[in-house]
Design goal:
Two copies of one chain form a homodimer.
Chain A lengths: L2 E5 L2 E5 L10 E10 L2 H7 L12 E8 L9 E4 L2 E2 L5 H4 L10 E2 L12 E5 L3 E3 L6 H4 L2 H13 L7 E5 L3 H11 L4 E5 L3 H9 L3 E3 L9 E6 L4 H10 E9 L11 H6 L3 E4 L5 H9 L9 E6 L3 H8 L6 E5 L3
Parallel strand pairs in A: 10-11, 10-13, 11-12, 13-14, 14-15, 16-17
Antiparallel strand pairs in A: 1-2, 3-4, 3-8, 3-17, 4-5, 5-9, 6-7
Helix pairs in contact in A: 4-5, 4-9
Chain lengths: 318, 318
């Protein structure tokens, strides 16, 4: 089959790859895939991955699955878990100690004609959720992970720092709480999308220090973190929704004195993400910036890497 | 001025009442008022209230207020607080020990041409929230109080028992969490509204016992409570969103053994209710069942008291 191949931070389009066939995993024909910041960071050497990248997708089950699954549209959780370790046995399978991660760690991903995943990872896509929405299930679930981890009260003040691909989804999931949300957005298109969805934006110089009950950092930059920490009130919650390249130097004493709760936030629940798109309480479609045919994945990655670029999609087949 | 007057459970339309003039309270011309279950219970003797009933409204500030408030559309919090008691001083003003409550306790309400409230109780209504939405601010805030009190996680299963006036608003605020929500609704119109909003309904015989993480009881009936308790899982949360006429006999040991968290829930935060309507994340308009001119308030109350009747509104002026 054909797929994008990543090796030593270089990508190339290969047409000589075997179909992914693993014991106990359904074969899935990829319909649409999305490019995420993590994919870009892998091409920049942040993760040492060799293989087919890509983890955001919607596809169709075509083989190696019970008859009732064949032909069904699915999205898939990206953590392949052992089921036996302490994390798996105590309700935290996304933290499985022996996990592989689709297109990120020890498991070929979805920038390919076909991919494979265990049935347990798959979620059926409701008929009224089109492919262009379903492909956002994974990042929307990640955005929802904040609501899963933290009790955000409707009466609270929330600052979201950053309005990129993940930030704009997080803005929508935070807005659902009814809280007084303000988003620090940099680019005109981000601000336009937010305002169209009735979400308030703020400029950096308008942010009042120690004023927010919850601050969500979604830039993955040291400057973003510093700004987030400054805006948070004592006893507030600081949720980290992006990974940081390299180390970050923190004033830990300030966290202690102010009794700050710091929460790292990664993968989230798929089922509610699908529910919220099905009922149109979340609409990711405005985030789509460009679409490429799958065999132009390298060019798509390049475009996705441009500053302020939102979601770039890859479509498999005509 | 003219208003509906309640005395010894009887209502009459009076045209001889003075304008409400209280020190430190803005005079408000009522534009639209809503009839709630509590109003009906007062006419049935559940609360011993003499005066003008009604507490759901949107109006216009016309006097006894700083110039910048005059002519502005407002909604108003219903608890008039002392500011000095322990509850007021510890951030729980809706529990003020010396409170009066608009149209319910020691304070004339809004089924009248004019009403009065302290400025501190008022919230400006954004231009793009029409009167027909704004009049739902108080009950929507009450629905949101559950999200304020309880951390509902997107991955949880929630059962809402009851889909009346308050239940249908609660269904919308619970659906925003992304949780797997099922609503036990009795009447076809309730089911139709819920399905139009992408919210699932369930029949009583389909409810699995001990299966729900959170159950919200919004019927105010003993049967509803029993059903709610049966559906809740051990260590689950049971939120009581309706008042109960008379006493309820509980199996308290079952609550203890199963470590159930029982939460009474009353008034909620206005600002997020307005935000959610302004951004159309909540739309109360389908709940409007009928509208009467203010001077037909008695007939309106009668209609509102019919089984399965949703929101009946009273309009002041032409």
């Amino acid at each position: 089959m054909q797929a994008l191949w990543l090796e030593k931070q270089k990508t190339k389009w290969r047409t000589d790859l075997p179909l992914p066939q693993q014991e106990g995993q359904a074969l899935i024909k990829v319909r649409l895939a999305g490019i995420c910041g993590t994919d870009l960071e892998m091409t920049r050497g942040y993760y040492p991955f060799t293989g087919i990248p890509g983890h955001e997708f919607v596809g169709e089950v075509v083989a190696n699955a019970p008859a009732e699954w064949i032909g069904k549209r699915v999205v898939g959780e990206i953590n392949l878990t052992c089921g036996n370790c302490h994390a798996c046995q105590t309700g935290s399978p996304t933290h499985c100690e022996n996990r592989s991660v689709l297109g990120i760690l020890g498991k070929d991903g979805v920038f390919a004609e076909y991919a494979s995943l265990p049935l347990a990872n798959l979620h059926l896509v409701p008929d009224d959720v089109p492919d262009e929405m379903a492909v956002f299930t994974e990042p929307l679930a990640a955005a929802l992970e904040i609501n899963q981890q933290t009790h955000i009260q409707p009466s609270q003040r929330i600052l979201l720092v950053g309005a990129g691909r993940l930030g704009l989804l997080t803005a929508q999931t935070l807005a659902l709480t009814g809280a007084d949300l303000q988003v620090l957005a940099r680019y005109p298109r981000q601000i336009e999308i937010l305002h169209n969805q009735g979400i308030a934006t703020i400029r950096e110089e308008e942010i009042r220090p120690r004023a927010y009950d919850v601050v969500v950092e979604a830039t993955g930059s040291a400057a973003g973190f510093a700004l987030a920490q400054k805006a948070l009130r004592p006893r507030g919650t600081l949720a980290l929704k992006s990974t940081y390249a390299g180390n970050l130097t923190l004033n830990m004493s300030a966290l202690v004195v102010d009794e700050i709760q710091l929460i790292g936030s990664r993968c989230g629940p798929f089922a509610p993400a699908l529910r919220l798109m099905q009922s149109r309480r979340v609409n990711p479609l405005p985030l789509i910036a460009a679409e490429f045919p799958l065999n132009q994945a390298a060019q798509a990655l390049e475009q996705a890497g441009q500053r302020g670029m939102l979601k770039v999609l890859l479509r498999n087949g005509g």
